Amino acid sequence: MAHRASDLYGSLVFAGDVMLKRLPPDVFMNLQRTIKNGSPLDPAIANTVAGAMKDWALEHGATHYCHWFQPLTGTTAEKHDAFLSTTSDGGAIEKFSGSQLIQGEPDASSFPHGGIRDTYEARGYTAWDATSPAFIYRSGDEATLCIPTAFVSYTGEALDKKIPLLRSIQAVSAQAMRILRIFGADVGTPSGVNQIIMTLGVEQEYFLVDAELASQRPDLMICGRTLIGAPAPKGQQLEDHYFGSIPQRVMAFMADVETRLFELGVPVKTRHNEVAPGQFEIAPTFENANVAVDHQMITMSVLRETAERHGFVCLMHEKPFAGVNGSGKHNNWSLSTDTGVNLLDPRDETHTNMQFLVFLCGIIRAIDLHADLLRASIASAANDHRLGANEAPPAIMSVFLGDMLTDILDQLESGNPKKTMKGGALEMGATTLPQIPKHTSDRNRTSPFAFTGNKFEFRAVGSTAPVAWPNTVLNTIIADSLDFMATQLEKRAGKNPSQAKLEIAVKALLKEVVKSHRRVCFDGDGYSKAWHDEAAKRGLPNFRSTVEALAAFGTKKASELFAKYGVLSKRELDARHEILIEQYVKILRIESRTLQSLVRTAMIPCAMRFQAELADAVGATQACGVECPGAEAQLREVVGLVEGLRKSIALVEKAEQAVQFKGDHTKEATHYRDVLLPAMTDVRNGCDSLEKIMPADLYPLPTYAELLFSTH
Ligand code: ADP
Ligand code: MG
Could you tell me how far CA 145 lies from the centroid of its own chain? Predict the structure, then answer.
């Protein structure tokens, strides 16, 4: 019989009831203060917690524990240690101490460090993050206790994505609290607001491909995307896949994924077919950001592993197939008090909700001032294929507000907001159907940063990206802007202003902010050429490629900003910049080598067989005294394509091997973008032209038609 999801939920997580039952009350309360209120972790409780975790993990069949962390590779890392420990009398027991829970010591020099560590300076530490619950991860028959940790160098510099994220959440919290204080909220008392929490819900898009077919495509297996491949006769033209009925085989996979995620306490909620054939989406209910980020990493692992068990490969790449939509991650972000009040809820009479309007205008200001950093936060070689390709938001960062808020912005600009636009009801003209309330505004899926009711949806994030980094950047730029808003209000209205005085100060400030920064707001079609022209006129940056975008992290503005809010020191930021640009180069190099091998060992040899068959046929036909101009022309065409392919693949090799840059990754990346990528496109065009005329039995790879429709 099927299990009820509510029974499974969290069964493999050391939190909530499990913790309550297994920890002495004083230790439980002590730990809760860290988890719920952000109090410093008390090391005195570590031994007791470790003992309880170990017993619980052993009961679930775990033999090992690991410190689970997010190095700058873009994935998660784990080093497993057995609980088993030998005793002096030759026996063995299971042991797990408080110090093993709190601290680990992986080799820091083997992870990307962007120059922070030298090869001989190996020491790094992992440190227990008690605010994200430990969990038992099952892989086949093996079970491992995973402890979410931060990863730091011996020098104290962050070598991971978690530490800056936590610092950025603190930064937003501190500035947002100042604004609440100005508006007279109950702040800092036991029953009042003690911190601001960032809430996050991340929708994940992915493709599924039959594993047997995928294994015959070295490009998919090595690079996660097809480097060649002509379009299938049917792609997404009929728009019949989006929200279509889920194929049975996929449904079984999704149900399995959900069961595993429920056990791991990941609150997955939504599943559906996406726009492209073979493309799907999974989305959770939002949670506090630190936990949501860890859960997002777990979700990607579970998707990949479960796909294997169902005979699929799960492609998380931003653009696995040319000509159909790629995949992204919608990053739904909001701020909430620790008492559960969403600070981005506009409420009914929004024009009177001054506190909301201060947050809203502060965020608009942040996106306008730091559009370059936000764009850089989502830059990657893979995301370059997607941004601005009429399927994903453009590389121009803009804010969608909808009619109601746009109307309020107009009113703010004139100095005195008087009304809130209402949505009304939708009448469908059939008496049996209910009258439904209508939103004040339509949806806009072309906007990179859209206000969607009571949260912002950052839609330009790539589907493989760990979301810790874009959220770290988002939080930092918003902390900066909220700092400005709070400082201005304190200056203009004083620390404990009367209602009337505060309102005057707020209206004056918002008027200025709206005037200076609403150029970043745009509600129209973000895919259109008209918007690109308009954005250029407004002076909004448009960094089309990763190479240009990442330069934002090298500016003085950036290093001062991240340092000011204690999120990243200049060295820590420089390290990330360096790693990102190096990753761009490495990815293109791997793609280029895969393409060279594919073309030289498969595509050209097969095309030569085709050429030989044609030549034989033409020769034999002509020897019989029969003219065959059509076949002759095709022979010439094939010879031309194959010769062209030989030349263009040589250019790819040459472009890739350019060595004149002596380790300057930015120069190398620029060269790859300007010379290697176009050369790879030429090769692709040659291959795809051949594919279209080659006999099916000679084409060496599964085709797009086979790959895209393999889930049925
Ligand atoms: P969509 O139509 O874009 O799929 P949904 O209403 O399904 O929108 O929500 C998408 C995601 O937004 C979900 O993960 C949801 O939990 C999340 N979300 C909703 N409210 C908030 C919030 N206040 N903060 C952060 N995320 C939120
Ligand atoms: Mg969405």
Answer: 25
CB contact at 8 A, 253 and 311 = no
**Residue 661 pLDDT exceeds 70:** yes
Contact 363, 456 (CB under 8 A): yes
Q: Which atom of ligand 1 is nearest to the CA of 344?
A: 23
Rounded to 10°, the helix 556-564/570-598 angle is 120
Contact between 361 and 367 (Cβ < 8 Å)? no
Pocket probe for ligand 1: among 281, 286, 447, the residue whose CB has the most ligand atoms within 8 Å is 286
pLDDT at residue 138 tops 60: yes
If you compute the radius of gyration of the chain from its CA atoms, what whole number of angstroms results? 28
Task: Kindly state if the Cβ of 284 falls inside 6 Å of ligand 1.
Answer: yes
Residue 659 makes CB contacts below 8 A (sequence gap 6+) with: none
Rounded CA gap, 711 and 210, in Å? 6
Q: Is the C-alpha dihedral spanning 320, 322, 323, 327 positive or negative?
A: positive
Q: Is the whole-model pTM more than 0.85?
A: yes
The more confidently predicted of residues 52 and 39 is: 52
Give residue 342 CA to ligand 1 midpoint distance, Å.
13
Range in 50-54, 75-79, 302-306 with the lowest mean pLDDT = 75-79
270 lines ligand 1 (CB under 6 A): yes
375 and 462 in contact (C-beta within 8 Å)?
no
Which of 9-13, 43-47, 110-114, 249-253 comes out lowest in average pLDDT?
A: 110-114
Give the whole-angstrom CA distance, residue 423 versus residue 425: 7
Q: In a 10 Å sphere around its CB, with 0-12 CB exposed, 13-18 middle and 19+ buried, how is residue 413 labelled?
A: middle
Among 169, 455, 461, residue to substitute to test ligand 1 (most atoms within 8 Å of Cβ)? 455
Q: How far is the CA of 296 from the centre of ligand 1 (A)?
A: 14
CA 220 and chain centroid, separation: 20
d(CA 312, CA 710): 9
Short-list 588, 558, 568, 563, CA closest to 680: 588
- Ligand 2 centroid from CA 312, angstroms: 25
Give yes or no for residue 54 having a pLDDT over 80.
yes
Q: Is the CB of 459 under 6 A from ligand 1?
A: no
Specify whether the CB–CB gap between 420 and 404 falls below 8 A: yes
Ranking 260-264, 290-294, 326-330, 416-420 by mean pLDDT, the lowest is: 416-420
**CB distance 341 to ligand 1 below 6 Å:** no
Residue 566 CA to residue 568 CA, distance in Å, equals 6
What is d(CA 584, CA 592) in angstroms, rounded to the nearest whole number?
12
